Amino acid sequence: MEQELEMPVDTDIAKGLTETEAAQRLEQYGPNAIETQKKESLFLLFIRQFKSLIVAILALAAVVSFSFGDWLEGFAIIGVLLINAITGFILEWQAMRSMDALKELDVTMARVIRDANVKEIPSEKVTIGDIIWLEAGDIVPADAHVVEANQLQSDESALTGESLPVEKKPGEPDENAPLAEQIHRLFKGTAVVNGNGKAIVTDIGAKTELGKISKMVESATQTSTPLEKKLESLTQKLIWVTAVLAVLYFVFGLLQGKDLLTLLKTSIALAIAAIPEGLAIVATISLAYGMLRLAKKNVIIKRLSSVETLGSANVVFSDKTGTLTLNQIEVNTICLPEGTLEVRVNTEDKKQALVSGDGELVKNTSYQKLVELSVLCNNAHITPDTNTGDPLEIALLQWIDLQQIHAEDLTQKNRRINEIAFSSETRIMATIHQNEAGYLVAVKGAVEEVLSRCNNSLDAGQEISLDEAGKKKWVDISEQLAAKGLRSIAFAFRQTSTLPADDALLQDLTWVAMIGFLDPPRLEVVPSLKSCHDAGIRVIMVTGDHPSTAQHIGETIGLTDASVKPMTGRDIPDLKQLNEKDKKRLLDTRIFARVSPGQKLDLISLYQDQGDIVGMTGDGINDAPALKKADIGIAMGLRGTQVARETADMVLKDDSFVSVVAAIAQGRIIFGNIRKFIMYLVSCNLSEIFVVTASGFLSLGLPLTPLQILFLNVVTDVFPALALGIGKGDSSVMRHSPRDPKSPILSKPHWMAVIIYALLMTGSVMFAAFYSAEVLGINAADDNNIVFYSLSLAQLFHVFNLASGNSGLFRNEITKNRYVWLAVVVCMGILALTYYIPVLREALNIQNLHPIEWIVVLVASLAPLVLIQILKRLRVIW
Hints:
Strand content: 15-25%
CATH topology of the largest domain: Calcium-transporting ATPase, transmembrane domain
CATH superfamily of the largest domain: Calcium-transporting ATPase, transmembrane domain
Helix content: 40-55%
Number of domains: 4
Radius of gyration: 34 Å
Number of strands: 27
Number of helices: 29
Distance between the termini: 68 Å
Structural class: alpha+beta
Largest sheet: 10 strands, mixed
């Protein structure tokens, strides 16, 4: 209720700021934003590229070269070190830009009153003096003084540690009191959990209570995602394996009396070859590009770790309204005591078409009273440009707009003085108004709840007794509407000369009518459900709606058939005392109706206990615990509350189930891409390790210099890996079962494939070296060049081996990836430069090769590609 207060800011409470005033204050006070993490400067980002293990090894290699007087190689290594840093800087900068672009897509909105109209704006544009409108499920956008409150409560646990909701009232705030005791103020970042109200903004951005403690957020360290930990573990294992090889090689060489400088260079070469340079950076870019692709498909991923989980989901609990239906709610059937009207509302032409029923019913007292209650018991706002509020309440106002009735006239004659906000527990909303006859209580809500509070019915302008038989008749009508897929809302009122006591407000009501709302099913959901079935994903509808309505929608979209009935919340057994029969019945059910928020949590736990990875969609504040409990919380972007969106791991901008399926598919593609480029990098690095180690143990000399290995790692490996990471992926990902999230990135079959890839490249290159030396009789320098170019090209061609095993030989996700072709062309161009530019030739010890030697290089580099493709067709390797 409004209360006369001394306002801290000069603003008209009823009209709010004008747009001109708001723009001036935004310019004066700045945006309503808190910088939770200082952005790293480009200079520091570049310097950070030198803080890595590979840099330390490169520096050691340069020191060794300078110590033995090999100045050219020493400076060349420093040059490669700079190239490595620049490459890492560019890739990481690109990843940061991608992540910034994603953050800009996830904008928190706030409702403000400006120029006497309620409008939705980005919360960053809320300024001092704005009148904000808040209701259950909203996140408070700024610190504010309460000026109007209807059962308004906020959850301030994140700010004060107080676990219970705090009731908020208008009044003069005591700013010296502890935050937990300031009942007249609202604080930025806290959640409204009940009721609604207005408040005037007093502080924004860094000046808010949340802003004052933001430095603690800045200093908090960011934890690694599970994927990053797996990548780190993989890198460490490779380093340890190579370290053992390097030590054994060094000791073996000393025992054989080999040159110390050669042994040191070879050991350093092995150490360099062990590190899959660019692994973490390419993984980040792969995730970022995948998330940007999802953003274009109306899916905003809020946590990097969610991407890994997405591809593993095998159970999805989906809400009905707006997710499996279009959320284009409209008044369809009006059930009055005197008869029923079926209408079609056309908001574009401003017309209402009568489909069936007596058109004269619109003149009845019951119809007129229904119109009045639809206006009064309503918090939505519609304008020619925008609509704000609950979709069902918007549908009511759009229907009223066609009656040639001015809603303002009704609200002026019936001044609202209080409200009982809708909650999932009561399933009723009521507004209390003062008029010429005294006090009017306007009520709307679930049919059963409203009927239980009614003693009379408005029939032909007269209030008559409503007995149990009469109530059953209305319940039966509600069942009939539900069977047609309509959602029923009941309307009732109470007119008194004096204001009833609070506990009597919702008693002794008079029944008026019932409206059936149509929300057509999304027909595009049908192929998405089939895709889920093919992908081993079970889709389960969980709704608070009527079971008959849920069943009708489920049958229409192919989720279930008439033989499988929904289970209501009343029928769900206690999960703590669940026997095997009840457990099987629950797990076989595909539609749950009339379920409570607590039961959603229980269902998630039931499936998670079976080892399932559960996705859960939700939109309300009461869905927040379930969204948090699920492995993947999926909030609705259009109709979802801010609390739901903040809690969730991903947000659907279009609220469509089709987007859920697209997100799961993209999650699988992203992880598949990451696995592909890891297999590529590791197999390439292993081939370098095998070539160097085998040559050492066989006393064949040093086949690759440290600088040549560096060149392979930094130049010819990273770009193809990056191309694999950002590709569009395998189109058949939704025809396979979900991946176990506990499994390693590379399973045993993948490791076997990687080792075979590396051995085939090693064998081909070593055979080329042996053939050149023994058959062609070329010198050691040329032999080194043959090994270098053969391995370089073999690794470039190897990128085409990473196509999935069941794809076509020439038409697959790799050959259709334009980035792969670009990477191959660029790397071949760089290889050509090493042969023709003198300074590069000298640094890499490049000699002129004869045509026969180039033929050996070409055969040796293509042989692994051909052999691997044969093995893949024979299903020997992945």
